[in-house]
Amino acid sequence: MQAQIVNFISAMRKMGVPVSLAESIEAQNAVQITGAEDKTTFRLSLRSTLVKSRRDQVHFDNLFPLFFSSHPRPPLIDIRTDLNDAQADAIRQVIHQASGDLEELLNRLFQGAELTQEEMDRLGKMAGLQHANSLRYKGWVTRRMEQALRLGEAQQAIMALTEGLVGEGIPRELAEQVVRMLAENRETIAEQLRSFTGSRIAENLADSKPGIDSDLLDKPFASLSEEDMQILRDQVKRLAALLRSRVALRQKRAKSGQLDPKATIRANLRHGGVPAKLVFRSRHIKPKLVVMCDISTSMRYCSELMLSLIYELQDQITRTHAFAFIDRLEFITPDFERQPGMEAVRSILARNPPGYYSTDLGFSLENFSRDYLDTIDSRTSFIIVGDARNNYNDPNLAVFEKIVKRSHRTLWINPESRMQWMVGDSDMVRYAPYCDDILRAGTLNELTSVVDKLLS
Q1: Fewer Cβ atoms within 10 Å of its own Cβ: the N or the C terminal residue of the chain?
Q2: Which residues contact 260 (CB under 8 A, 6 or more apart)?
Q3: Within a 10 A sphere around the Cβ of 347, how many other Cβ atoms?
């Protein structure tokens, strides 16, 4: 228990809760006096010694059940227990009609067999759980594990079993009871995954390096120090890995594409050539991107992290043409072809020192239209990363409209809120009507969500 409390306090610190050594010792002493048998008293002992503010209370409430669960999940039901051999065989026969992995899962639910530790570890690794060190990933990682296990499809299959069981001679009342118990077992497996995910994230929090505050991911770019940025630069590869897993899972589950006659015939030879199962060609179209990034003082951090994320995910993109601008346009794709992503970004920024009153997006758009318009076609997403603050220069709307018409879609990524578009030298309200979407990305978390949307 003492080691568990130490890990819990470590996770609290990781979440940004200031817990001093003296308070840590005080918490241990309080537990020794009150004991840990009564969960309510135990929880109050820790809370009274570790929590000092409402914000700390939220983190405490989120973490406590992950380390000290007080609600053990019910065991799975072995449905075979109350059935005779003929009934059990009939149910197995109906389950056998499901495909591969789904049949295996339904048999597990029928037998009331929990997931083993090895199986959960494997599912967690597939979902990227080893990289999750923030509670915000708990729901997402759990859903990925459920998808890998096909729990959602199992729910649909279970609901459709009743008539099949009745058709095999199972009395309807018994068939409905079996379906209810299968659904309960499925929910118990889902709870097992949720509990495992929460516990593993709690371990990751306790074991992660000190000094990396998860709240930093939600800190506005304008408020970041150079020390903060260095920490975020180190997080880019981890976030890119999570995005890559998410994109790969979406593609795996996609059901789009054209009918494949040859594959359909081959798949149905066992049915005498009569098509009982249609096979479709997979149709995973990777996006083509043209990205223009404002690297002036106000946009430097946002653009740097955007470029870093994009080039960490090049295997998910058909082609990227990247440009940087302050008062003129520069084609920077060759930098990424010569050196790794982060090094390329650093070299680009080094040769383009920021200036406070030199941004000229309108002139940069004219440069693009004159020299690089052929990089855009009907499959290209044209993306501008900038705050549209143009120092009262000509926004060149006619040229922007020309570029927009050639592209598949135009997205503008802006760290500022809509309220700021009407203030000072911002031209955002003038560019906005030509954009398909304007996405706010004022923090690294928001920027990551935007990149995920680009790849969806």
Answers
A1: C
A2: 279, 280, 281
A3: 14
Q: What is the DSSP string of 222-252?
A: GG--HHHHHHHHHHHHHHHHHHHHHHHHHHH
Amino acid letter at 208?
S
Give pLDDT < 50 ranges for the chain: 210-212, 253-256
Q: In Å, what is the CA distance from 161 to each residue of 20, 89, 317?
A: 57, 14, 42
CB 409 within 8 A of CB 381: yes
pLDDT of residue 405: 94
The predicted pLDDT at position 356 comes to 56
DSSP one-letter code for 426 = B
Q: Which helix or strand (DSSP H or E) is residue 292 part of? A: strand 288-294
Alpha-carbon distance of 27 to 56, in angstroms, equals 15
**Measuring CA to CA, how many Å separate 188 from each of 83, 182, 198?**
21, 10, 15
Sequence-separated (6 or more) residues with CB below 8 Å from residue 248: none
Measure the CA–CA gap between 242 and 399, rounded to whole angstroms: 37
For the chain, how are helix, strand and coil distributed in percent, rounded to 5?
Answer: 65, 10, 30
User: Distances in Å between the alpha carbon of 446 and those of 136, 212, 239, 417?
Assistant: 13, 18, 12, 13
Distance of CA 121 to the CA centre of its chain: 19
Q: What is the pLDDT of residue 210?
A: 46
CATH assignment of 288-455, among 3.90.1170.20, 3.40.50.410, 3.40.630.40, 3.40.50.11810: 3.40.50.410
Contact assessment for residue 189 and residue 115, using Cβ atoms and an 8 Å cutoff: yes
3-state secondary structure 144-161: HHHHHHCHHHHHHHHHCH
DSSP string, 325-382: ESSSEEE-HHHHHHS-HHHHHHHHHHTS---TT---HHHHHHHHHHHSGGG--TTEEE
Determine the Cα angle at 368 with ends 365 and 374, to 5°.
135
Which strand (E) or helix (H) includes residue 293? strand 288-294
Q: Smallest Cα–Cα separation from 310: which of 414, 448, 444?
A: 448
Distance of CA 220 to CAs 55, 104, 386, 409, 443, Å? 19, 47, 15, 27, 5
- Give residue 272's pLDDT: 62
